[in-house]
Amino acid sequence: MGSLGKPIILMVAMYVFLKFVLPYIPGSAPLPSSLIVLYLLLTGSGIVIFETVSKESKDAFWGPIQRFLTGEALGGLQALRYGVLIFFPLLVGWQTYGSTAVSDLPPMESRTIHPAPPGEYTGLSNPVPKTPDNIMQGKGFYAAYCSPCHGGNFDGKGPAARGFIPAPANFADPTTIAMLQESYLFWRIKKGGVGLPIEGAPWKSAMPRWEVELPDEWIWKIIMGEYDGAHQSPRTWE
Amino acid sequence: MKPANQMMKQVLRYGTAATMAMMIGSASLGYAQESVSVRATLMTGGLPLEDPNAAVWSSAPPATFPMSPQVHWQNRIQEVTVKDVIVRALHDGNQMAVLLEYADPTQDPDDAAALEFMVGDKKAHFAHGQPMLQVEGGPVNIWFWKNKTDKAVDMSAKGFGTLKPQEHQDVKAKGVYANGTWKIVFSRNLSTGHAEEDVQITPGEFISIAFAVWDGRKDGSGDLVEKGSQKAVSSWWYFRADAPPDYSGYMYAAIAAALALGFQFVLIRKLKKGQ
After folding, report:
1. ipTM
2. Cα B201 to chain center, whole Å?
3. Which of A122, B65, B74, B120 has the most beta carbons within 10 angstroms of its beta carbon?
């Protein structure tokens, strides 16, 4: 009889492990519920294969299930049997309703934050010498043109930022300019939001296309001022 | 050997616990996203097309959207009066009405507001459908209201400098100012005969909407502070007119439950016969 108890304990233990233990192992992350279901299905089919290799183990495994379903000699468990027989169709109906009902949620949107730049904007190096004067000039241009949205503190919290989605980039965040090359910033500043490829959702970005207003030299200086002001360094290839 | 009953109890206990845990896990997935849309509630009876203060507006859920100064293109402005707009919408299956509400300390003749929609299947940039460099964009439909005339102008644009009133004027608007608050109702038929320039609203489908507001106050030298591209703007948000109630989900659920029930009976009969 233990041959049915053990598999169930194993399944529950597997679920508890996947849901509550695995996410806390360093370097791990919570599993999506679809993956948990998949792992449980694999565990379940493994158990079924294992339990049905011999005639004896197969009988020991299926016997109790058959007796429960047919209701033979169940005694006090008869009520539970009816409960299960009622609960199962309701569960199927509920799941069907959940998967066919029209969603009230707007379409999900995914936006690539740093999409690939066009070929001509990869690997360019800043032609402006990195002198204190140039950095200071860059910060001056930044204050005039960029800070209304990207913020005087380079944190993306400028006074004009509040209504914009996507929010203006926070340059102090290590996942923005610190992981990009100067060449990439040059492209993004020059072409602005409308220059993004489709995966970057260009129709939503308020970033101006600065090439129509600022000379390239100013843009290179702004890049310098941004890195200096945000205490970040451009990504390099070494 | 344990008695069969005891073992069955165990089976049920663990099985139910595991099933419940999985159900709770999957049910909590669907509710993570915030509300980012205007919902036009379906109503019967007259829509309050001319009345921003009609009681029926309270039956439409309000949605609040933050505003920014327009910075995408020259001429820019660094600061604007209106920081948020509150939006409600109603429809009756033929017509729709959108109520735009915002705080403005003064009523000025040049106060103005606008709704913007994407038209058709192509994405349009929120700044007047400004051309995009790597994506072919579509036009936008702009419903512009001005206090001076208290009327709407139905307009089209595909990039800055291309904004112009349409030949067919399908939109109405009416504004009321009281206690430092503007309330403006825009209304139109859900669909028009001009799908290439007018947004077409199909109940149940999400479309993109954005907002713009001009505070018509003047500076010390008598010049307008907010005018033209110097205005408060929002990003794109979603708009949806509620579809008529749909009960087909219940029908599918009932069919599925009946099938599961039938499966149980067949299975049990087979098992009993087999023995």
Report:
1. 0.80
2. 11
3. B65
